[in-house]
Automatic annotation (TrEMBL):
Coiled coil: none annotated. Belongs to the class-III pyridoxal-phosphate-dependent aminotransferase family. It comes from Pelagivirga sediminicola. It comes from the Bacteria. Transmembrane segments: none annotated. This is Peptidase M23.
Length: 440
């Protein structure tokens, strides 16, 4: 007879052997042992709909990824000091998706490492250290990445804002100071960059550049208003800085019509940072930049990463990009995202608690409020909904400074049944919160 791993024992060992700031999701944590496409299976083989994880971009346990990993590990796995065709093949495939001025790749092992390297490149290109970045951003767990991640340095017990970093408001056109009804909102948020640059200069820092998640995710699944990013980039460049787009959450077709979020905003970065989905579960990060920035960086010491750009990593990365194309996953993200957004907007007519629905493709946020007029964050309702969805075996996330925004970010394989199940269950769960629309 099958007996699953003892969940209570696993939990206890975890509590004994790991730091307590390694967080678990859900009041009743879930133990997941297998996955397939956008489904996961727990200790008893019960299915869960994965509406949250962006790492399994082309789906959990994809047979082509399994085959390529097995094949490469049977041959060998080595580093960038030896020639291998797969490194150039991966770079060429990735660069075919980028604007032509972005033509140099660096391969590393995580989004954090990629951002860390992007900071070094920016310093090499400008001679400066000063960074402007929106509030509530997240760029990784390394020392340098934490320095530019307000979500971490401003958290309880955090290190506080480093002197070489200046913050601007999140371009949140639902809750922030400039809102959707103001056609100037994008320009007004962008103008804050000028104040930040001045503040850095006053503190004696030369500007290195600007970094942002192109669509801020940790900040609450924000879609910046039109004109915002291109205006920011213009101001940063005029002050001598470079512009870094962290596309870890938004890149590679998730948005449907746009392969990257900077395209959707009509902005052109000097560096693009990629992570999580590009390895589909294999650790992989990439920085793509211009030949000029790469040349400035090459004036310094050799760049080397033992595992970054390994034969295995490059084959995995190339295969992920191939699968997105071969299976039409960006088109699926566009179709399923549209279905989800339409369904969520319909739910707004039934549930007072939904203050805002926003998104593009399969990058979607549902902002919950206790009253629509005051837009008071409904943090408690969001926690309740997330846990109840899990009890109905749908995995979702919660984001934003007030943790009141439901985050829906499934693998790109999700289908109409999956979307309709999310909508149906969310409708029922929201009804339980008692915050329905008054009958009309
Ligand atoms: N940038 C963004 C936008 C992220 O969401 C993350 C991870 N959540 C990172 C960087 C860091 O990536 P990693 O955890 O792979 O180091």
């Amino acid at each position: 007879t099958y007996s699953p791993p003892d969940k209570a024992a696993v939990l206890e060992m975890r509590q004994q052997h790991f730091g307590s700031n390694l967080k678990l999701s859900y009041t009743d944590p879930v133990m997941l042992l297998r996955g397939w496409r956008h489904h996961m299976f727990d200790d008893w083989g019960r299915p869960y709909l994965d509406a949250y994880n962006n790492v399994p971009h082309v789906g959990h346990a994809h047979p082509r990824i399994q085959a390529v990993v097995a094949d490469q590990l049977l041959r060998m796995n080595s580093n960038t000091r030896y020639l291998h065709p797969t490194q150039a093949e991966f770079a060429e495939k990735l660069l075919s998706k980028m604007p032509p001025h972005l033509s140099v790749c660096y391969f590393v092992n995580s989004g954090s490492e990629a951002n860390e390297l992007a900071l070094r490149l920016a310093r090499a290109a400008t001679g400066g250290r000063g960074i402007v970045t929106p509030n509530h951003g997240y760029h990784g767990n390394t020392t340098g990445a934490i320095d530019i991640s307000a979500y971490k340095f401003n958290a309880k017990g955090g290190i506080g804002r480093p002197d070489h970093v200046a913050l601007v408001d999140l371009p949140d056109d639902y809750r922030g100071p400039h809102r959707r009804d103001n056609p100037q909102a994008g320009g007004l948020y962008a103008a804050q960059v000028q104040v930040a640059i001045k503040a850095l200069q006053k503190r004696g820092h030369t500007l290195a550049g600007f970094i942002a998640e192109t669509f801020p995710s940790v900040g609450g699944q924000i879609i910046p208003p039109p004109g915002y990013l291109s205006e920011v980039y213009k101001r940063i460049r005029a002050a001598g800085g470079v512009c870094i787009a962290d596309e870890v959450q938004t890149g590679l077709g998730r948005l449907g019509q746009h392969y990257f979020a900077f395209e959707a905003l009509g902005a052109s970065p000097d560096m693009v940072v990629l992570g999580k989905p590009i390895g589909n579960g294999h650790p992989l990060g990439v920085v793509v930049t211009t030949p000029q920035i790469a040349e400035a960086f090459a004036q310094g010491p050799e760049f080397f990463s033992t595992f970054g750009g390994s034969t295995l990593s490059c084959r995995v990365g190339k295969t992920v990009l191939d699968i997105v194309d071969d299976e039409g996953l960006a088109q699926n993200a566009a179709n399923m995202g549209a279905r989800l957004m339409a369904g969520l907007k319909a739910l707004m007519n039934r549930h007072e608690a939904i203050g805002d629905v926003r998104g593009m493709g399969l990058f979607v946020g549902v902002e919950l409020v206790t009253d629509r007029r005051g837009r008071t964050p409904a943090t408690g309702i969001a926690a309740y909904v997330m846990n109840r969805m899990r009890e109905h075996r749908i995995l979702m996330g919660r984001e934003g400074p007030d943790d009141n925004i439901l985050k829906i970010r499934p693998p790109l394989t999700i289908d109409a049944e999956g979307i309709d199940m999310i909508l149906h269950v969310l409708d029922n769960v929201l009804a339980e919160t008692g915050a329905q629309m008054p009958p009309r």
